[in-house]
Amino acid sequence: MKKVEAIIKPFKLDDVREALSEIGITGMTVSEVKGFGRQKGHTELYRGAEYVVDFLPKVKIDVVISADQLDACLEAITGAACTGKIGDGKIFVSDVQRVIRIRTGEEDADAL
Question: CA-to-CA distance for 64 and 17, rounded, in angstroms?
Answer without folding.
Answer: 14
